[in-house]
Each structure stands twice: as C-alpha cells, then as structure tokens.
Amino acid sequence: ETGVTQTPRHLVMGMTNKKSLKCEQHLGHNAMYWYKQSAKKPLELMFVYNFKEQTENNSVPSRFSPECPNSSHLFLHLHTLQPEDSALYLCASSQIAGGPGTDTQYFGPGTRLTVL
Amino acid sequence: AQSVAQPEDQVNVAEGNPLTVKCTYSVSGNPYLFWYVQYPNRGLQFLLKYITGDNLVKGSYGFEAEFNKSQTSFHLKKPSALVSDSALYFCAVRDGGTGFQKLVFGTGTRLLVSP
Questions:
Q1: Whole-angstrom Cα distance, residue B32 to residue B92?
Q2: How many CB atoms lie within 10 A of CB B49?
Q3: CA–CA distance, B87 with A93 (Å, rounded to integer)
Q4: Residue B53 exposed, middle or buried by CB count within 10 Å (0-12, 13-18, 19+)
Q5: What letters, b where the CB count within 10 A reaches 16 and e where it falls short, cover B63-82?
Q6: In this predicted structure, what is the pLDDT of residue B90?
Q7: Helix runs in chain B, H state only
Q8: Is B49 on the interface with A (CB under 8 A)?
Q9: Does A105 sit within 8 Å of B99, measured CB to CB?
Q10: What's the pLDDT tens digit per position in B33-77?
C-alpha cells in the first residue's frame, strides 16, 4: 500500500464543514481515480484524471470537487456534505495508454468519512 | 455497457480445503478481468488479471483464476485455503479497447475460512 497513500485515514465532519482528502501516488502513473465504497454496493467511480485532465465525472454532486495539480497528487474537496455521503473514499492510480496489461489500478488504503 | 456479477455474498470454507469465488461478466468487446482483495479497514489489493493468452492465470498468495469465454466466467480459486485468506474479494471487468475504459466492479464476496 505504500505505492498510493491517502490522508487522513479517518474523518468526521459536520454538514457545514469544508474538508479535503489527499491522495499521492509514488508509482509514476499518469492516471488517478476517486471511488466511493458504500456497504452492500459496488464501488462507484467518481472522477478520473488522465495526464492531470479530468476525463470522467460520473454525475457526482457538486459538493464533491476534485483537484489534480500534477500527476502524483489528487485531492477531493468536500463541502456541505450529507449524512448519506458517509463512506470509504478510495483513491487509485494506473498507467493508461501503454500496452495491454499496463492498466492495472492500484488503490490506496482509503479515507473513512463520517458526516454527522 | 459492461457488468460483473458475484452471485455469492459469502463463501465459507474450512482451512486446508480448496476454495472458489465465482464471477461472471458481460462486456461488448474483449474482456480484461481482474480480482482484488480487501482486508478490514484497508484499500483494495490487486491479486491477478486476465488480458490474453493462457486461460489459467496465477496471481499473488497462491490464488489463480480461470477465464472461460463460453461461460463468460472468471472464477477465483485456491487449492488450499488459509484462515488469513478471510477477506472481501472483488471481481472487475473493463472493455479491452485502447485508452481509458471504465473498470466495473462486482458487489464483492466475503470469504470466511474457518480453522
């Protein structure tokens, strides 16, 4: 798990707070992802950045705002969240545009978010 | 659009016995198939993948998976289970096109290995 790190590991916030999740990858990859993992549901892809440009936004509410300043760092800015946003937020990275077999996603340990 | 089904919420196995975790998929093109494992309070760890070639793929920790095109399945197997294998297992599929293709995950199967 040292390839992709996430901070903080746990976060409790009120609905009026603003906080940010941070992800850093040390694998030299060119793509980074945010996923939401809720109990009893498949992983939900939220955002994808390829070469620092956002290429996917799967109808995520605007209270989630991603930022990718470079190919190694990814942030998820949170504001005015709802209790149903409580979940494990996972960051991943991969190397896109290589040959077959290069696009394996590697995940960080996640941030457990609780919205009160 | 691609999809993945993991028909079992939980699989119970005694230590030392063989285990199988089932996965079936649907994809329009050639499938790229993956298995991940998740231990409590951890992220997903990559186990193995099938891209092309031999239908039997070997991965980490003694796990293997068999790609069956006719049955659109990619079941995860291990000849002899360990208590430490107890975890949540996810199957995932993406279309084998170039560039970005969304990786779609199943709902996960909890494996419980009893001593």
A1: 8
A2: 20
A3: 22
A4: exposed
A5: bbbbbeeeebbbbbebeebe
A6: 97
A7: none
A8: yes
A9: no
A10: 999 999 987 889 999 999 888 999 999 999 999 999 999 999 999
Smallest CA-to-CA distance from A89 within A8, A1, A3 is with: A8
> CA-to-CA distance for A21 and A7, rounded, in angstroms?
6
Q: Which of A47, A88, A105, A112 to mutate to test the interface with B (most CBs of B within 10 A)?
A: A105
User: Is the peptide bond preceding residue A66 cis, with omega within 30 degrees of 0?
Assistant: no
pLDDT at A27: 93
The tokens of A68 are what?
């990718």
Q: Do the chains contact at A56 and B99, CB–CB below 8 Å?
A: no
Ranges of residues in chain A whose predicted pLDDT is under 70: 1, 52-53, 55, 97-102
Q: How far apart are the first and last CA of chain A?
A: 29
Asked whether A107 and A116 are in contact (CB, 8 A), the reply is no
Decide: A24 and A73 in contact? Cβ < 8 Å.
yes
pLDDT of residue B92: 95
Kindly determine whether residue A109 and residue B52, on different chains, have CB atoms separated by under 8 Å. no
Query: Do B49 and A31 count as a contact with CB atoms less than 8 A apart?
Result: no
- Predicted confidence at residue A58, as pLDDT, reads 73
The tokens for B18 are: 């063989």
